[in-house]
Amino acid sequence: MQLRECEYILAIARFGNMGKAAQHLYVSQPTLSKMLTKLEEDIGAPLFERQASGMTPTDVGKVYLENAQRMVELNAQMERELKSASGKQPSLSIGMPMLREELLMQSVFPRLCQRFPGMMANTMHTPQGKMAVDVINNRCALGFGILSDKLKQILRCEQVGEERYVLAVPKGHPLVKKAHENPDWKYPRISTHHLRETPFVLSRPDAYSTRVAQRFFEASGIEPPIALTLTVTRDVLHSVAAGAGVTLLPDIPLSPISAQVVTYLSVENTPEPFPVGVIYRKGYTLSPIENAFIDTLRQVYGES
Fold this sequence. Notes:
Blueprint: H1 3-15, H2 18-25, H3 29-43, E1 48-51, E2 54-57, H4 59-85, E3 91-96, H5 101-115, E4 120-125, H6 131-136, E5 142-146, H7 149-154, E6 156-163, E7 165-170, H8 174-178, E8 200-203, H9 208-220, E9 226-230, H10 234-241, E10 247-250, E11 262-265, E12 274-280, H11 288-303
Helix pairs in contact: 1-2, 1-4, 2-3, 5-11
């Protein structure tokens, strides 16, 4: 098995279409088709069933794909370890929802680069529901987000902390003075009746945070005005900081900059706390910088 052949076959399986796979690999479709034909001749059996709906791996193809994935992962791991051993640039490859990017940029990477000067961080935005697929398909080595029970079954998970939905308000907002400290709540607690006429900023209707907010409104018996709806959840917190309204978001540790302009308040009728952390493929060996990344995240969550 040659590494390039492994990558080509994995791409065909991923897209189920020769044309799309060839486009992704930046090769011509005839070149890709010729390679597949020769490989199947060498193996003595077809790797895919050609159907109108697409190309589906045969039993032989599934065996090839399983081993091809392992070879690609081992090669990536070897390259990473060789770079580390030779003192070359340490790197991270992380997929995450956009809402979590600011935490890494302002609170995690500055600490990490002190231990790994010259480090390279390759970040990609991936929705929570697509993060596992991107990790499994090696589009990113690590994923950072909510650790669901399903993820724990198919991937390695390293919990770094917990989050729960809270009310994010601009610093100095009148609601802050109406909130009360309570030893049973992490943040000062605000009564929901104070929110009846308070303008909210929400993300797009299909965003999970918006669905949580709508359930919160219903459970609390309120219909507050919606001041602004944004298509990108990450921008909601920025709009709150600018005074557009308040919102419900997970209490991701605030960066030093955000902590100066946003305050978290506890409210009832929100979901129970949920675990957050880093996911990666089973059998994948973490590099020193990846272990340090996870440890740094734990420190940041522990300080919040």
